[in-house]
Amino acid sequence: MANPDFLKSLPSFAERATQLSRHSTPYRDPVARIHWERLSRHAFWLPEQAVSLYGIEEYDALPLATRQTLSHHEFARFLSAGVWLESLFLQRLAHATLKGPRATRIYHLHELREEAGHSLMFLEFFERSGLDDSATAAHFDRWLTFLGRRLPFHSTLFWSAILLGEEVPDRLNRYVRLHAQGVCPVAVELCVLHSTDEARHIAYGQEVLRHRLERAGRMARLALGHALGRLLRRFVATFYYPPQDLYMRAGLPAGPWAARAARHILRRQFVAHCLGPTVARLRGLGLAISWP
């Protein structure tokens, strides 16, 4: 059940929000921090191991320029999905600044500023790269869009979904940070800046979820774990498995590329590697998530 006043009974929560707010100050516009002159089409925009078709024989036989172009389109979709997801969160956060404890209202405003900065950074990337940025909510998971707009803001399920929506793309950001060699420096900078802010947002979401679960019974935890398993699979499909038309736009020859990526063992292992820490953390909170 949603309870708009639940944070008021958690004195340590306000302290945590205040601490995170301090770390969000001073704010620096990410658009101004990126060295845009280093953006290049003659480099991968993702580590090649993170490209969805990596390790498939037909992909390995493609010219280097074609493989790089595919990484460009996959990275662009990753950013488009980020704009979509952050737009949902921004709508909900804006309403949350109107009421509640002052410390949490202040932190929500910091999140608003940072999430807006991320979307501006992504759109600037599209402007400078010349790639298509027309993807809208209709191009992504409509069920997730519905939940993002309709779930009660203070409900456990809403904050669980928010936590997953931040963790799932952030694991790819972190992978890019750790495997940056050969990747376009602008793509790396973008992932680093995004991940730095997301670390605070994830910490906040974890704190909300932890406090809510302290009051949850066994059946509620079981139900939430089941729901989160379904949500996780949908987020993974959105951020890690491109649709078929993306491969055509990237110039690959005709073929069932999306289906090949979905079945490919190396892709599944890559996703499991990226999301393993997220699943382990949620299971550590007592949530029996069935995944993969």
Tags for this model:
single chain, mainly alpha, Ribonucleotide Reductase, subunit A, 12 helices
Give a brief rundown of this model:
With 292 residues, the protein is an all-alpha fold. It has helices at residues 11-23, 30-33, 57-60, 64-96, 102-129, 142-150, 156-178, 185-213, 218-240, 244-249, 257-263, 265-284.
SSE blueprint and pairings:
Blueprint: H1 11-23, H2 30-33, H3 57-60, H4 64-96, H5 102-129, H6 142-150, H7 156-178, H8 185-213, H9 218-240, H10 244-249, H11 257-263, H12 265-284
Helix pairs in contact: 1-5, 1-8, 4-5, 5-8, 7-8, 7-9
Rg, alpha carbons: 19 Å
Helix content: 55-70%
N- to C-terminal separation? 28 Å
The low-confidence parts are 1-11
By DSSP (H or I, 4+ residues per run), the number of helices equals 12
User: Structural class of the helices, strands and pairings?
Assistant: mainly alpha
What is the strand content?
Answer: under 5%
Fourth-tier CATH superfamily name: Ribonucleotide Reductase, subunit A
Provide the domain count: 1
Secondary-structure element sequence?
HHHHHHHHHHHH
CATH topology: Ribonucleotide Reductase, subunit A
Task: Please give the largest β-sheet.
Answer: none
The CATH class, by name, is Mainly Alpha
Q: What would you say the CATH architecture is?
A: Orthogonal Bundle
Average residue pLDDT: 90
